[in-house]
Design goal:
With about 290 residues, the chain is α+β, with helices and mostly antiparallel strands. The chain folds into two domains: about 130 residues, Diaminopimelate Epimerase, Chain A, domain 1 (Roll); about 140 residues, Diaminopimelate Epimerase, Chain A, domain 1. The protein has an 18-stranded mixed sheet that branches. It is globular and about 55 Å long. The model has no long low-confidence stretch (mean pLDDT about 95).
Length: about 290
């Protein structure tokens, strides 16, 4: 029988993952482990699996690999990278207040936030610059289509006409602004957006209501995971899309089902900054 795997369950505004310390534990098939351990009936239960590993590049304190509940690997997760920053600090891997995490979307700088008792309870993350060029998101446009930014362009999904803005925050996002997001049947329509021919690598999709120019609400269908309580990269993409469509200011609060994230899109650097919480839920052993 294989040795039990030590894990930590963590969440960032309800976006929950199982975290494994790859400095100490060995995982031979992370995709299979993600499918098993994420199962909410027969596993630990989570939106996916995050491995915290030694960095492979200079200038980073640790490396993050993130696997969705279906076993597919994603480039980046904003809520998870805040939790990785907390874990790295709490475990003594890096004692600094600002840690640098290597991801498939580049190195992310995580500035830790501390509660009055000295514990890390969140972070501000420099998420870098949004990517708006369709080919780099990536999108597969029809021959002769405008190759410029895909902003509020009409798209048909199962007979439903929507205006869609596409943004990559290291992973692809399709943003749709509308009224009345609560009645949406995301179980039905989410996969139709995720697997739309426009997105050859699938996409995350955000459905957004504008409450004011400084406050938005969103629901998210995550690629490979389904509807989740929160998506950090999705909130960043929504903030960018809202500015591009003239719906919001560059500094906004975004309400998700698991809580609120604050997003700033800095005009001078073009970088997006995300502020939100990070919490440890429990630790345990998983019998493989």
């Amino acid at each position: 029988m294989a040795a039990a795997l030590r894990f930590t369950k963590m969440q960032g505004i309800g976006n929950d993952y199982v975290y494994v310390n790859g400095f100490e534990e060995q995982v031979s098939d992370p995709g299979a482990l993600a499918r098993g351990i994420s199962d909410r009936h027969f596993g630990v239960g989570s939106d996916g699996l995050v491995l915290i590993l030694p960095s492979t590049v200079a200038g980073a304190d640790a490396r993050m690999r993130m696997f969705n509940a279906d076993g597919s690997e994603s480039e980046m997760c904003g809520n998870a990278v805040r939790c990785v920053g907390k874990y790295v600090h709490d475990a003594g891997i890096c004692a600094r207040d600002t840690v640098r995490i290597e991801t498939l979307a580049g190195i992310k700088e995580v500035r830790l936030r501390f509660a009055e008792n000295g514990e890390v309870d969140g972070a501000v993350v420099d998420m870098g610059e949004p990517e708006l060029v369709p080919a780099r998101i990536p999108m597969q446009l029809a021959a002769g289509a405008d190759a410029g930014p895909f902003i509020a362009r009409p798209v048909e999904v199962d007979g439903w006409q929507v205006n869609l803005t596409a943004v990559s925050m290291g992973n692809p996002h399709a943003v749709v602004f509308m009224d009345g997001i609560d009645p949406l049947d995301l179980t039905r329509i989410g996969p139709l957006f995720e697997h739309h021919p426009l997105f050859p690598r699938r996409t995350n999709t955000e459905f957004v209501e504008v409450l004011s120019r400084r406050r938005l609400r969103m629901r998210v269908w995550e690629r490979g995971a389904g509807e989740t309580l929160a998506c950090g990269t999705g909130a960043c993409a929504v903030a960018v899309a809202a500015v591009l469509e003239g719906r919001a200011e560059r500094s906004v609060d975004i309400e998700l089902r698991g809580g609120t994230l604050h997003i700033d899109w800095d005009a001078s650097t073009n970088h997006v900054f995300m502020t939100g919480g990070a919490a440890t839920v429990f630790t345990g052993l998983y019998q493989r």
